[in-house]
Write a structure and sequence with these properties.
With 388 residues, the chain is α/β, with parallel strands linked by helices. It has 2 domains: 230 residues, Type I PLP-dependent aspartate aminotransferase-like (Major domain) (Aspartate Aminotransferase, domain 2, 3-Layer(aba) Sandwich), CATH 3.40.640; 85 residues, Aspartate Aminotransferase, domain 1 (Alpha-Beta Complex), CATH 3.90.1150.10. The protein has 12 helices and 17 strands. The strands form 4 sheets. The chain has a 7-stranded mixed beta sheet with strand order 4-12-11-10-7-5-6, with helices on both faces. Strand 13 and strand 14 form a beta hairpin.
């Protein structure tokens, strides 16, 4: 009999009854240290009291009204994101793929509305992942994800990451802009070099094209600053957010400068659920936590401790791990052995981690992990290495 729940995921045989902080418990009482955070999504951990209270309070009042009316919760969240970023305006949606779709449309619309409709092509990068819609599949580079879905939309050119010569060669009279992840999560926790990001900003200015950043995974404190672009000393023209922005509640956003955002006029784009009162109550609660004094400073400190420990594992157990990748609390361990086996061994030790391309074990714990959580994760990884 075909399963009632579509079996399009390869699910581990684990079901969790509850969680707290960086820990999850199964119905039979087993405890797991969660270093996947729902794919970098439960940014302030499981069961955070401030987030739980905000969702419960808002749910008891009004959850959804649609964007036919004002939504004060969305207005407040947008104002706070604008105050903390390069942006002048925010569009709310439900997911990372939807945010990236919105960013693509916003970039193209800005060109068309300024008399440059021929400029519709976007330069993307090998190893990129931007979502599972047809448009974001086209922007991504993984051919496997496209198999069987027919032709994907055109208008995307792919070049190697961190190769400025390839970028310049790809720019033509139809180029609209450049779109990339500061750190490719699914693509193997591969980081764009800060000098490369600076060069991209410069080349976009030189050719009067747009720089769009996919910070769905790197945003909201994941790399130790609120947004990863801050560490390169640049600003994009438009940026997609999701995952950690709602702390586990579905929420996405597109942030843009006025020069880009003003062209998305009424009727050009929309959403039913995006930015509803409940989602934005969650987003505001998450932002309360992340913007608290010393929170991001502590994320950077813990990330440094964790990375030093991972580098020691690479040094001491080269037959298991060969390199550490990433920044902040988006880190990857390049495996010398098949990734599936290493991930299964971690699970057997009570450590949840994520797969990534290039045989990389991805670690993206909640930002609220403690020093003890880091120590326990490193000890579990060490046992995986010793068992070997």
């Amino acid at each position: 009999m075909f399963p009632a729940l579509l079996p399009n995921f390869v699910r581990a045989n684990l079901a969790f009854s509850h969680g707290e902080g960086a820990r999850l418990w199964t119905d039979d009482g087993r405890t797991f240290l969660d270093f996947g955070a729902g794919i970098a999504t439960t940014s302030i951990g499981h069961g955070h009291p401030h987030l739980v209270a905000a969702i419960a309070e808002q749910a008891a009042k009004v959850m959804h009204v649609s964007n036919l009316w004002r939504i004060p919760q969305a207005e407040r969240l947008a104002e706070r994101l604008v105050a903390q970023s390069f942006a002048d305006s925010v569009f709310f949606c439900n997911s990372g793929a939807e945010a990236n779709e919105g960013m693509i449309k916003m970039m193209r619309k800005a060109m068309a509305s300024t008399g440059r409709a021929e400029r519709h092509r976007i330069i993307c990068f090998d190893g990129a992942f931007h979502g599972r819609t047809l448009g974001t599949l086209a922007a991504g580079s993984n051919e496997t994800y496209r198999l069987g879905f027919g032709p994907v939309p055109g208008g995307f050119d792919h070049v190697p990451l961190n190769n400025m010569n390839a970028v310049r060669d790809a720019i033509g009279p139809e180029t609209c802009g450049i779109m990339l992840e500061p750190i490719q999560g699914d693509g193997g926790v591969r980081a764009a070099d800060p000098r490369f990001l600076k060069a991209l900003r410069s080349v976009c200015d030189e050719y009067a094209i747009l720089l769009g950043l996919d910070e769905v995974q790197t945003g909201m404190g994941r790399t130790g600053t609120l947004f990863a672009y801050e560490q390169a000393g640049i600003t994009p023209d438009v940026m997609a957010l999701a995952k950690g922005i709602g702390g586990g509640f579905p929420l996405g956003a597109v942030l843009a400068t006025e020069a880009v955002a003003k062209h998305l006029t009424p009727g050009t784009h929309g959403t039913t659920f995006g930015g509803n009162p409940l989602a934005c109550a969650a987003g505001n609660a998450v932002l309360d936590v992340i913007l608290a004094p010393r929170f991001l400073e502590d994320v950077r400190r813990k990330a440094g401790v964790l990375k030093i420990g991972l580098e020691a594992l690479v040094r001491d157990y080269p037959s298991t791990f060969t390199a550490v990748r990433g920044h902040g609390l988006l880190l990857g361990l390049q495996c010398a052995q098949p990734l599936a086996g290493v991930q299964a061994a971690c699970e057997a030790e009570g450590l949840l981690a994520l797969p990534a391309s290039e045989n990389v074990l991805r670690l993206a714990p909640p930002l609220v992990i403690s020093d003890d959580d880091c120590a326990q994760a490193l000890a579990k990884l060490q046992r995986v290495c010793r068992a070997g």
